[in-house]
Amino acid sequence: MSDAIKHECGIALIRLRKPYQYYIDKYETPMYAVHKLSVMMEKQVNRGQDGAGVANIKIEVPPGKRYISRYRSVEPQPLTDIFSKIHKKFRKGLKNHRDRAMDAKWLQENLAFTGEVWLGHLRYGTHGTNEVENCHPMLRQSNWRSRNLVMAGNFNMTNVDELFGKLVSLGQHPKEKVDTVTVMEKIGHFLDEENQRVFERFKGVYENPTLSDVIEDNIDLQRVLYRSCRDFDGGYAMCGLTGYGASFVIRDPAGIRPAYYYADDEVVVVASEKQAIKAAFNVDYDQILEITPGSALIVDKNGEYNEFPILPKLEKRSCSFERIYFSRGTDPNIYYERKQLGKLLIPQILKEIDYDLENTIFSYIPNTAETAFLGMIEGLEEYLAKKRKQAIMEGILFEEDLEKVLSFRPRIEKLVTKDVKSRTFITADALRDDMVSSVYDTTFEVVRKNVDTVVIIDDSIVRGTTLEKSILTMLDRLKPKKIVVASSAPQIRFPDCYGIDMSKMKDFVAFRAVLKLLEERDLDYLLEDVYTKSVTSIATKNPYHTNFVKALYEPFTDEEISQKIAEIIRPKDLNAEISVVFQTVENLHKACPEHLGDWYFTGNYPTQGGNKVVNKAFSNSYEGKLERAY
Ligand SMILES: O=P(O)(O)OC[C@H]1O[C@H](OP(=O)(O)OP(=O)(O)O)[C@H](O)[C@@H]1O
Ligand SMILES: NC(=O)CC[C@H](N)C(=O)O
Fold first, then answer.
1. Ligand 2 binding pocket mutation candidate from 151, 154, 182 (most atoms within 8 A of CB)
2. What Gene3D superfamilies does the annotation carry (predicted)?
3. Which ipTM value was assigned to this complex?
4. Nearest-CA neighbor of 605 among 578, 630, 576, 625?
């Protein structure tokens, strides 16, 4: 894993449970929460490079004073941009009021970002363009405090169009068709209705302004969330703050997207990755809990919190790609799982190199694959230990042979270096090819020319661009006899529709391999068949039952597809032989037993909407359309 750069969306929520003055006194700074939030966000930069945003709510400020503050940025270093602006605000605000720097009441009445509820977001867009307007947190404003809503999420819905249609059928007139706005408007609509319901209930009993407080005390967010989310189909960890300071994080019923929380008497915090909470608050890992799928963590206006069931749970299918690639590998469980992934590849790799360890060099593609590489080496050591034992048991007579067996070590080298600390995977398509070709460098004079085989491990092969445009050509200059690429993830065959931007069929090198195989074996009539079934199904009222695209992979074995992938990614002038070895789905599940979500490898989607998306992705590619299928 690179030390902190870029990927998918990340969330960070902090609720201060005590009065602001408490933190100023205890930590001797008015910026305790700013600091904690910035650490939590820095540690999740791996999740989003398109932009970032921070929102803050003050709970107890008098009418006429601003209580919601927000900064969003799409600058190249959005976090630096946002947090330096917040620091500047403090500096400016305190310039002529140094004596007020530790006075919570004065600060809250005069300075932004001095509230008790904080929401941070790192964006990697799956919907809409990369503009600041599409950065989270988004805001739904009203003059009634309890109707204000601030939202940010790591999510993607498969049925945004339907959700949008429902808003229109309710009589709303949304000004844009961005998924975050659609989801927020939906929740906002039911928050409005809940306000109205509580208002009707108490209007004869209390008068305003007391009535407003009564409404805030009686709003049932569990009910709001149930009514809003029951027709969501997707993967989500959605955070919301209400204008009166209550907050929530709801997680999808299959637990697709990650969401963790920690609470003590000072704070309640939520993040997409455990490691963000660990880094900011240094608590034990077992104190960091997972939000139960289908439930919401709700923190009320007074800072009391609990998990509430919202939707019926589905079979738990948490995203395994988080473990293979997205999340920070410093989380101890992820670290261990990545090592296992590397280790489990060993039998296939040994077969591929014909057990010839003397003439094989093992290496990896930086950065995420580094941990899997360590596991792979452990696997090799275990294999060698067995061989040694066997040799001794079988009784080798000559000292020289025994010496050789005992002292043999696998040849491990760092052949590839990554010059830029950034994730190419999530770089905009148009720039990616260029970036990939210039980002890596190689070590010369280690490989024995035309003798050695190089085994190089990567965490995943998606488009195959990293290999084709850079790694293979570079390695070939070292003149190995053969290059074996090992992928710690299985073949990526189907789109993701739950928050990872892998949505176009032709982007997948595995799919392009299958297209070639179909053509070569005169099976391409299957394409039309699948297309007809897909478009017919999409046109029906219930297009959710079957993933027809699976049928295109069925005629071929995994090995046949791997072989074809090797042919496709092979640069024109390559001299070395080349082969590709992929993790099996079975071993993936062995390595990551708590994260069984594998739809991009198997086509088994955890929500019905996934089938619609894959059929649509295929029909788009068949029709030559280069658009996302959701
Ligand atoms: O087959 P492709 O479509 O080219 O994508 C796969 C590559 O993209 C990622 O690297 P990235 O540079 O994003 O990140 P990393 O340094 O964290 O591994 C991943 O680790 C693979 O190397
Ligand atoms: N990766 C994500 O979670 C994306 C969130 C949301 N769909 C957006 O595009 O802004």
1. 154
2. Glutamine Phosphoribosylpyrophosphate, subunit 1, domain 1 (3.60.20.10)
3. 0.87
4. 630
